[in-house]
Amino acid sequence: MLPNAAAAQLPQSPRSKAEEGNYAENAGGGRAIKYKVTGHHVLGLEAVLPTGEIVVPTARIPELVRELERLALKHDVLIPCYGHAGDGNLHATPVKKPETPMEAWKEKLPLILTELYEVVFRLGGTISGEHGIGFKRASYLPIVMSPELIALQKRIKQVFDPLNILNPGKIFP
Questions:
Q1: Arithmetic mean of pLDDT, 4-28
Q2: What is the pTM of this model?
């Protein structure tokens, strides 16, 4: 449980615009915290949302959860995980603890992501499912794809976009 979770207060109806999407109604009509993400904070903790999502075979999700716990302890961070477990598409989001200086966070985050993506690959998964690689994760692509496969994807993009007008400057310029 996150440190501030017990202190989180559910809003009284009607909800404000800032709270929309953060709460879900259950079948009995009561409110429950759905994910309580507001801006870049998760229950009062600063979150950096670089990962998009990861995908692993559903049978490997229990191993992934154990690995997330190991990584969180090793790097002294929180890594909440949520998403679409039915198809193995999960959002694992490293969260900076308030006492961690930003400079230290900027140094440790790439290490955490590298280790996370290596674990995902070892479990038979990949670093993208529903959101694509994007430019923030492009440097991690070699963890899950061979240089030959990356080169093939660049050539395919060149065939369909010879003028580089579709998503210019993104993953395959």
A1: 42
A2: 0.69
Long-range pairs for 20-26: beta carbons < 8 A, 24 or more residues apart: none
Residues 31 and 58 grouped into a single domain: no
**Segments forming the whole domain that contains residue 56:** 47-160
In terms of Cβ atoms closer than 10 Å to its own Cβ (0-12, 13-18, 19+), residue 166 is: exposed
Q: Quick one: 28 and 55 in the same domain?
A: no
pLDDT tier for residue 166 given thresholds of 50, 70 and 90: confident
